[in-house]
Specification:
Blueprint lengths: L8 E6 L17 E2 L2 E2 H11 L4 E6 L4 H7 L3 E4 L6 H10 L7 E6 L7 H13 L3 E8 L9 E4 L5 E5 L14 E9 H8 L16 H9 L2 E6 L11 H21 L3 E2 L12 E2 L4 E2 L4 E2 L4 E2 L4 E2 L4 E2 L2 E3 L4 E2 L4 E2 L3 E3 L4 E4 L2 E3 L2 E2 L4 E4 L2 E3 L1 E3 L4 E2 L4 E3 L9 E3 L4 E2 L4 E3 L2 E3 L4 E2 L4 E2 L8 E2 L11 H12 L1
């Protein structure tokens, strides 16, 4: 990730917190927002800044976090001793002696590229600033560290809520936890942080004071929106992050040319791609890996995951498209139809009550109501190949492996276990038996017993 910036940029992401208030076996940063672990949101954001390296600080038992952030390297904070100790662990794993260091948090997925770019650029452009902190002005500052400034608006110190005086508690300039500074100086200053506090831990909030006392360095700050600074320590806060992210994704979808009839009822994943003039009806859920082409309509209560729709497709209502599905132009999938691991050709359709799994369906083919492809024999999955302009009648059972060649017909109610040649009618059901007058005599017989 080498870059051409004037100052090399190193990024350290703090992700060692266990998140005990989540009451989960997962590390806090592995909980998902819009279908992606929070830590992955942050590493993607870090990558967008084009840094020289990204280092993620984890606890010893967080192999799943290390695997998720790969190929970025990880540093281990052996015991939880505060944010300054975590940054120190990150610095020990990088050899950089010059340039800028940006510190982010693994549970902060809402920062934007624009905010962090401006924050780093403003710091690097200010020769008088040795250390910069990203601040915000919340409506309610309770619980946040207050940023105390001097007459020149330089940061003097950061005071935690419980240690702030009554006057300091009135200050609404608060630290987000994000900071940027000269990496060589931070290496020096971080060694001077002590744990003389109620928790016996080492905190980054000591750095403004240390920088001023040790090197007479001016410490400055930049502002961001409160929403961007939000993190998650509880399930409730996680739900709040999800709501904020979904609002962004919905707005982005509409700005890019999609219509959301009831935006608040639609759920996106962070990687959902919608074409122009796509219409999304209420209560649609997009799992990860969905790409929708122009002029498609997704009707209500449908669920899509790892699928590709080309143009002019109509899906639902109450449809489920599972991973590995690819629908060409003009495909129609109706109510209570499930498609999985299948490719459907141009203009083909399955309008009602069908299951299509591990199938290749040619252009113009029709899959009747109640049809299923029997793709699993209890051990292996098998392929069904349906050619172009094939008609499959209602309530048909197609036992894979199976091929229905171009132009063939399958009569309603058939169980097909053998390949059907081109332009052939396949009927596989018992011959009906008609007994004249049987029903009338049966009723009379039963009524006499009564």
């Amino acid at each position: 990730m080498k870059n051409k910036r004037a100052h090399p940029l190193e990024i350290i992401i703090l992700a060692a917190g266990s998140g005990t208030r989540m009451k989960s076996s997962l590390p806090k940063v592995m909980h998902e927002i819009a279908g992606l672990p929070m830590i992955s949101h942050v590493t993607k954001l870090a990558e967008s800044l084009n840094p020289d390296t990204v280092t993620v600080v984890v606890a010893p038992s967080m192999d799943n976090v290390a695997k998720t952030v790969s190929p970025h390297k990880t540093a281990i904070q052996k015991t939880p001793q505060g944010t300054a100790d975590a940054v120190k662990a990150g610095l020990a794993s990088t050899r950089s002696k010059q340039g800028s260091l940006l510190v982010l948090y693994g549970d902060g997925p809402l920062y934007t590229k624009e905010t962090l770019q401006k924050f780093v650029s403003d710091y690097e452009a200010n020769d008088d600033c040795g250390l910069s902190f990203l601040a915000m002005k919340p409506e309610d500052p309770f619980g946040y560290g207050r940023m105390i400034t001097d007459e020149n608006d330089h940061l003097v110190k950061i005071v935690e809520q419980k240690e702030a005086s009554s006057e300091e508690q009135k200050i609404n300039l608060c630290w987000t936890g994000v900071m940027c500074g000269d990496i060589a100086k931070i290496r020096n200053w971080i060694e001077k942080v002590d744990n003389d506090n109620s928790k016996g831990e080492y905190y980054l909030t000591d750095l403004p004071r240390i920088a001023r006392e040790a090197d007479s360095e001016k410490t400055c700050y930049s502002l961001c929106a409160e929403e961007e600074s939000l993190g998650a320590n509880t399930r409730g806060e996680l739900a709040n992050l999800e709501a904020k992210m979904q609002k962004r994704l919905r707005e982005k979808a509409m700005e890019n040319g999609a219509t959301l009839i009831d935006p608040d009822s639609v759920t996106f994943s962070e990687d959902t791609v919608l074409g122009k003039d796509v219409i999304i009806e209420p209560n649609v859920i997009f799992g990860s890996g969905v790409r929708v082409g122009n002029n498609c309509r997704i009707r209500g209560f449908s669920y899509l995951e790892e699928v590709t729709l080309e143009e002019n497709c109509v899906i639902g209502p109450f449809a489920r498209l599972r991973p590995g599905t690819h629908l060409e132009d003009g495909v129609k999938i109706g109510n209570f139809v499930e498609v999985k691991g299948s490719h459907m050709g141009k203009g083909s359709k399955a309008n009602h009550l069908a299951y299509i799994g591990n199938a290749e369906i040619g252009a113009g083919s029709n899959i009747g109501a109640g049809t299923i492809t029997c793709n699993y024999d209890g051990f292996d999955k098998h392929q069904t190949t349906i050619g172009e302009n094939v008609f499959v009648g209602s309530n048909s059972t197609l036992v894979a492996p199976l091929t229905l060649s171009d132009g063939s017909y399958v009569a309603a109610g058939s169980v097909i276990t053998k390949n059907v040649p081109e332009d052939t009618l396949a009927v596989a059901r018992t011959r009906p038996i008609m007994r004249d007058g049987w029903a009338k005599s049966y009723r009379e017989k039963k009524s006499k017993k009564d």
